[in-house]
Specification:
Helix content: 10-25%
Number of strands: 56
Radius of gyration: 63 Å
Number of helices: 15
Shape: elongated
Largest sheet: 8 strands, antiparallel, barrel
Distance between the termini: 197 Å
Strand order of the largest sheet: 13-14-17-18-20-19-16-15
Strand content: over 45%
Structural class: mainly beta
Length: 1060
């Protein structure tokens, strides 16, 4: 029982002790929780705060904290944090709302405080870029986040530092070994000096910020920096820098997909560093040009303090295309290498090579261009630092070159197969020396942004071009030397060797005045100018030969457009302010068989017009003096010419079909021509020429003429002659107000032509067929002729001429007329002769006819002739002189409806004859019957015919009449029958006695009717020897009554002439 009582007491005490401990522990926990809540809400005391910041100061982090709160067992929350030394750097303001400080648990267990990490969020960093009262905005970095870890091995790890500045997201990762070495580093602040010669760095930075603010970004750019640093040996540090900008737009241009990566790492040799750079850009469009698919790579080695290695920098640039308003370079490839010269870093050498597949610039397209350069200069960083320190914030890069340190070098430019609108070349090599200019020229050269490099350099060089063509001239070789001392460019001793001849020139270009001046001389062979002339003129020029090459002296000045003008203003056709003059002299030239002892021409180009004040040409065939002008842009020209040239010289200037027209007339003496020519070089055939021609002693188709004068107009290969006047001998005149020659169809047109010249000479000029057609019609004195129409001088079938003539002493066959008028219409192979009138053997003749000609010299024809009051005695005295005893007055009509010139036997037609007071008995045909009556009563049969009529038809070489009736006072005679063209007779004659006797004629005729049957006869034989036989009585009964009169003297024995 006692044991039980004792054990229960012990148990109670134990329970009480446990309860007390539990209460105490709970009270302690509550008290600790309250303390922690108080520390988290109110913060740690000041003295404890300073105690906790000591580990940060040991890590070289100096902070000034407004309050520190306990956030966890080993985490502290720092509020109202500032950099302790920010007051010594008033330009830098860091605003940290809260910072999270993490202590090392391991060190806390050992009762030691050591910072493990520091985290900062939503902080702001401001860089004041101006004085206190300035309006310049500070540079602000917002949303800063920092994760900084402190490792026990004296290593810092910046796991992440992020922020946003100027719309760019920034991320940094870094590690720093031997961080404690920062405590031994001495960071001193240099006093700020005032820059009175230029803008301060704050102003320069502010201007850069303002430019950056004008850039519009499609997405936020990302900048990432990864670093590995060593506080004891900074040269062993390694940096990896990356920038990515998807798209950016700005007033200066637009870029797509920009990526930059740069790596800095130590070299194997101690103390040195290697820097690599990769820049990639999909496209860049700016005011100066465009770049597509750009890639830049570089490797640079920096020596350490011991100079154990030499400085070396290599750059490699590639792009798909670089295009500017002046240049288009395909697939450019740039390599550049900079090497240290000597042991010290005070002089360097850079070798540059730029190549490409093709280059298009100023109208030329070239293959495989390349540029080489070798420059000697100061340290690249010194060049850049010196230039930037004086040029910023100016955006004109001209000042960058102007303020850089002196440099010098050598260069070479090479091109192959360059082609352009002005010509082409096989190869070009241009090399020389280059250095920084000592005189940059006037300030207004800043208006030339594309030539920023040229103002601040000076160079000299020489070049050589092989197998080149410029302005269609072919050059075998071109050599030249140049100098450039801003603002004056000089081209020395340019010598160009052509296949035939050479050209030498000297030129200067003053970029201040924008004035180019060229002087020179050329002595090419004549054929070398062929490419400058139209193709149609080449054959003409190729016929010229010269003992000595012609000499050309020239001078030119070109005023260039303003440097900021657009590319169109720089096109050759738009350069309006060009002035030039040239003088061409040549002696002893030969053109075929013509000699040209002297040629001199002066040309002046101004106001986009090429003028020729005077061109003087002296040849053995005459002389030429001319003046004119040419518009090279439109190729229109105007030329005034005064010459004494044979027209055959000009045949090569005209189309081939015009040659026959020019050779139609041959001149023994060169004609005098005063003319004005208008035309276009691109269309040589479209010439308008107007002027006056005078000529003497010339031949047209073998016919000679004394003189000739006319005014003329030539256009569209048609020559129009007006006021034409020509003399052939003393009394023969040819004139026409208008004569046209169409060289395209070789046709001559005449309007109101007038002639008193020999018509047979004119028809021989027209053509042999025309001459043969009128050769049988003869005028003993030239008639007066008016002419209208056209006549081809190569094909007679196109003839269409109208003649109206008036003349005297006209002969045809055996006919003769003292006066005649008529009209002739000649069209192709047909000829109409109408309105022919004139006195004809005491009466009047009217005649008209139509002819159709064939290629075999045959012709079909028809005509109608009528005559009144013909004196038969006068008529027969011309056509049959032996029949002069025939008398009488006749009226006759003859119409031939169809005939051919092969034979008169082809005649078909009809006619009629009326006669009065005639005596026809000497004709055997009539005299044989009248003799019978005369034997009955002497003299009775020889009485004069009171009248006679007959109608007849002609066919098959036979004249047939059915009603010939001859009436005399004592008898009447009727004929009906045929007379052949060869004289054969087949007719019946009836003699009626006393039929026309006064008063009782009808009665007597009836009474003697039986006797009349005795005298009804059949006539045969020929006209010269007719055979008369009685129809009803035997011929022997009439023998005593036969007359002895014959018609032997009527017609000649020979074959009769062929009538028309």
């Amino acid at each position: 029982m006692l044991r039980r009582a004792l054990s229960s007491k012990v148990v109670k005490k134990i329970r009480r002790a446990i309860r007390v401990c539990r209460i105490a522990l709970l009270t302690l926990v509550i008290l600790l929780a309250g303390v922690l809540l108080w520390l988290n809400w109110v913060g740690l005391p000041k003295y404890f705060q300073r105690f906790l910041l000591v580990p940060l100061e040991q890590q070289q982090v100096f902070l000034q904290v407004g309050r520190i709160r306990l956030q966890g067992f080993h985490q502290l929350l720092l509020e109202q944090v500032e950099l302790r030394n920010s007051k010594t750097h008033p330009a830098i303001e860091l605003a940290i709302p809260q910072a999270e400080l993490t202590l090392s648990i391991t060190r806390l267990r050992r009762a030691r405080i050591e910072v493990e990490s520091l985290r900062i969020r939503h902080s702001t960093l401001r860089f004041q870029l101006s004085e206190t009262n300035s309006t310049l905005d500070p540079l602000t970095v917002t949303n800063i986040g920092v994760d900084l870890n402190f490792h026990p091995d004296d290593r810092w790890e910046l796991a992440r530092l992020s922020g946003e500045v100027l719309g760019t997201h920034l991320e940094i990762e870094a590690t720093l070994t031997n961080a404690s070495a920062l405590a031994s580093s001495h960071w001193t602040t240099q006093p700020q000096t005032t820059n009175t010669s230029g803008p301060t760095w704050q102003q320069q930075a502010q201007e850069l910020i303002q430019h950056w603010s004008q850039i519009q970004l499609s997405e936020r750019p990302h900048i990432h920096l990864k670093a590995s640093l060593n506080a004891l040996d900074w040269s062993s540090s390694q940096l990896d820098f990356k920038v990515r900008v998807p798209q950016a737009n700005s007033p200066w241009g637009k870029s797509d997909a920009l990526y930059i990566e740069s790596v800095l790492k130590p070299t194997q040799a101690k103390g040195g560093s290697e820097l690599s750079l990769i820049l990639q850009l999909d496209s860049l469009h700016s005011t100066w040009g465009e770049i597509k698919h750009l890639e830049i790579k570089s490797e640079t080695t920096y020596p350490g303090p011991t100079n154990a290695i030499a400085f070396r920098s290599g750059w490699n640039l590639r792009a798909q295309e670089i295009r500017t308003p002046w240049t288009d370079l395909k697939n450019p490839h740039l390599t550049a290498t900079t090497l240290q010269k000597g042991p010290n870093l005070d002089e360097f050498k850079t070798d540059v090579l730029l190549q490409g597949d093709s280059l298009t610039s100023l109208g030329f397209n070239t293959q495989k261009p390349h540029v080489k350069a070798s420059l000697s200069h100061h340290h690249p960083w010194a060049l850049l630092q010196h230039a930037l320190s004086t040029s910023l914030p100016s955006t004109n890069i001209l000042t960058f070159w102007n303020h850089s340190l002196p440099w010098r070098g050598e260069w070479q430019l090479g091109l192959q197969k360059a082609d352009g609108e002005l010509g082409h070349l096989q190869s070009l090599v241009f090399e020389g020396t280059v250095a920084k200019a000592t005189n940059t020229g006037p300030n207004n050269l800043d208006q030339w942004p594309e030539a920023f490099w040229s103002r601040h350099i000076q160079l000299s060089g020489s070049g050589r071009v092989e197998a080149a063509t410029f302005a269609n001239l072919e050059f075998q070789e071109v050599s030249f030397a140049t100098e450039w001392h801003p603002p004056l460019f000089t081209l020395h001793s340019l010598e160009a060797k052509l296949k035939q001849g050479s050209i030498r020139t000297h030129a200067t270009a003053d970029l201040h005045e924008r004035l180019i001046t060229v002087d020179g001389n050329a002595a090419p062979e004549v054929t070398a100018w062929k490419p400058l002339l139209p193709a149609d003129w080449s054959s003409w020029l190729s016929k010229i030969r010269a003992e000595k090459a012609p000499e050309l002296l020239f001078h030119a000045q070109v005023k260039l457009p303003p440097w900021d003008a657009t590319a169109d203003h720089w096109h050759l056709t738009n350069l309006t302010q060009i002035r030039a003059n040239a003088t061409l002299s040549a002696t002893n030239l030969e053109y075929g068989s013509f000699l040209i002892p002297s040629l001199k021409a002066v040309a002046i180009y101004t106001n986009q017009t090429l003028q020729f004040p005077h061109v003087d040409l002296l040849t053995t065939q005459g002389s030429l003096h001319s003046s004119g002008e040419l518009n090279p842009k439109t190729q229109n020209y105007q030329l005034k010419v005064e010459s004494r040239f044979n027209p055959e010289v000009l045949i090569p200037l005209f189309p081939a079909e015009a040659e026959a027209g020019i050779r139609f007339v041959k001149f023994h003496n060169a004609p005098w021509v005063d003319a004005t020519l208008l035309g276009n070089l691109a269309h040589p055939a479209d010439i308008l020429a107007q002027g006056v021609i005078r000529a003497t002693n010339f031949i047209a188709r073998q016919e000679s003429f004394g003189d000739f004068t006319t005014t003329f107009t030539y256009t569209n290969q048609v020559i129009l002659l007006t006021n034409l006047l020509c003399h052939r001998g003393e009394n023969e005149v040819l004139s026409a107000p208008s004569v046209g020659v169409d060289l395209r169809i070789n046709t001559l047109y005449i309007t109101n032509g007038f002639s008193t010249a020999d018509p047979y000479a004119i028809t021989r000029i027209i053509g042999p067929q025309t001459a043969a057609a009128i050769d049988r019609y003869r005028f003993l004195t030239p008639p007066t002729v008016q002419i209208n129409g056209k006549v081809p001088y190569t094909d007679i079938h196109g003839t269409d001429l109208y003649f109206s003539l008036k003349g005297g002493d006209f002969n045809y066959w055996r006919f003769h007329m003292s006066k005649i008028t008529g009209d002739i219409h000649w069209q192709g192979d047909r000829l109409w002769i109408t309105n022919v009138h004139g006195p004809f053997y005491g009466g009047q003749l009217a005649w008209q006819g139509e002819f159709t000609f064939f290629p075999d010299d045959e012709a079909d024809y028809s005509f109608l002739a009528s005559a009144d009051d013909l004196n038969l005695s006068a008529l027969l005295s011309d056509i049959a002189p032996s029949a002069s005893s025939i008398e009488g007055t006749a009226k006759a009509t003859l119409q031939i409806t169809s005939a051919n010139s092969v034979s008169i036997n082809t005649w078909k037609g009809h006619g009629q004859v009326e006669m009065s007071d005639g005596f026809l008995w000497s004709i055997p045909l009539f005299g044989s019957l009248s003799g019978i009556i005369d034997n009955l009563s002497p003299g009775f049969g020889k009485s004069r015919l009171k009248s006679g009529t007959a109608t007849y038809t002609i066919d098959k070489a036979t004249v047939q009449t059915k009603d010939m009736d001859l009436r005399a006072p004592a008898f009447g005679l009727k004929y009906r029958g045929n007379v052949a063209f060869d004289g054969a007779l087949d007719a019946r004659a009836e003699l009626k006695l006393f039929r026309d006797a006064p008063l009782l004629g009808r009665t007597f005729s009836l009474a003697f009717w039986p006797l009349s049957k005795v005298f009804e006869t059949h006539v045969s034989g020929t006209i010269e020897n007719p055979i008369i036989e009685s129809v009803y009585f035997p011929s022997f009964l009439l023998a005593p009554l036969r007359p002895i009169q014959t018609l032997k003297d009527l017609l000649p024995k020979s074959k009769p002439p062929t009538p028309p």
